[in-house]
Amino acid sequence: MTDAGDVKTLIIDDREVSALRGQTILEVARENGIDIPTLCHVNGLGDVGACRMCLVEIKGTSKLQPACVTTIYESMEVSTNTERLQKHRRTILELLFAERNHICSVCVANGHCELQSLAQQQGLTHVRLPYRNPDLHVDGSHERYTIDHNRCILCTRCVRVCAEIEGAHVWDVMGRGINSMIISDLNNPWGESSCTRCGKCVQVCPTGALFDKSKVGDAHPKYPDFLPYLNLMREAK
Amino acid sequence: MSKLTLATVWLDGCSGCHMSFLDLDERLLALAELVDIVYSPIVDRKDYPDHVDIALVEGAVASVDDEKKIHKIRAHTKTLVAMGDCAVAGNVPSMRNPIGPKAILDRAFIENTTSQPQIPCIVVPKLLPIVRPIHEFVKVDVFLPGCPPSADTFHAALTALVTGTPLDVPALTRFGA
Questions:
Q1: pLDDT tens per residue across span B2-25
Q2: How many beta carbons lie within 10 A of that of residue A160, not counting itself?
Q3: Model-level pTM?
Q4: Contacts of A126 (CB under 8 A, 6+ apart)
Q5: Which of A223, B22, B44, B56 is 20 to 30 A off residue A26, Cα-Cα?
Q6: ipTM of the prediction greater than 0.85, yes or no
Q7: Which residues of B touch A116 (CB under 8 A)?
Q8: Bridge-partner residues for B12, per DSSP?
């Protein structure tokens, strides 16, 4: 039984909605059919607010807040899709495209990529920033999977699923800022790491950075939907 | 009213966008009623005309020749359309950027050659250090991403441009489409 004091009322995009104490803006918005775009968030994993796609405006503060890690409070007023937010979201996508080598046409994830579809959804037709064209490697040392750093957006979904769900914590982030890299173990080749070969990281990767070697061309849809189900089953046990 | 003039240009691309444009098939006949194609790889004209209403530019800017051409096109064109991912984003031609033109040319013309290894320097234009999308050189009016944009995308976009009606590009196409 929910304590009445735990029920909060707030306004999202001019709509009055009710929520429970401790819920995030993103959770409440989605429960009420209000879509906030996300990239690093995936249902079933802890949120880190890394990609900033879900930034929202909250009345009373000029600072934009990531909806995935901001909890609601009574009488909060949230705007999720203002012109300012749309502008920022497009700029974030442009920065992601410019940062590494995202060549959609020859990517294994073409047509199944969250970065690609988000760009289209947010009305991005070109990138105004100069491309950085970094020289990044592809690690194909694993017998089943490949990591292509050219396509990585550092969302850390792979790091989180490996640590939180698989419990192996093979993946982590090395370096800082623009030099950040996803590494396995202590920057060892993936094929020589402590990887359990479960493949969860491949399924949650939103782009073509992690892919299954047995898939060819662009026939590589990802299925991250197993996560909430897996969590549910584990809790029920 | 005289017909609008249309040019299509082929810079550093694979001609796939032109192929997709030709996939308009019988709709090309309807298009020909509305526009005169005055310059194109499929039109026998050597120099870019002085006044072009709409130019579809395929391909990225990869050589000194591409760079010269894109400035000339911009100067003589009312509506410049970046056609396809190479023109819009660099795409496949830009995959040489992390490697650099010297290593690429050495590989193709020296290392893998048994007879008279030499890098061609006569007639062929010099490569730029990096391949870049055309909007990094000149102002682009319309971006049509896609590899290639579909014939339907061309049809919708050209119809909008010729008739002056609004054009919603993200509803039609995307990077890699």
A1: 899 999 999 999 999 999 999 999
A2: 23
A3: 0.94
A4: B82, B88, B89, B133, B135, B140, B143, B145
A5: A223
A6: yes
A7: 174-176
A8: B60
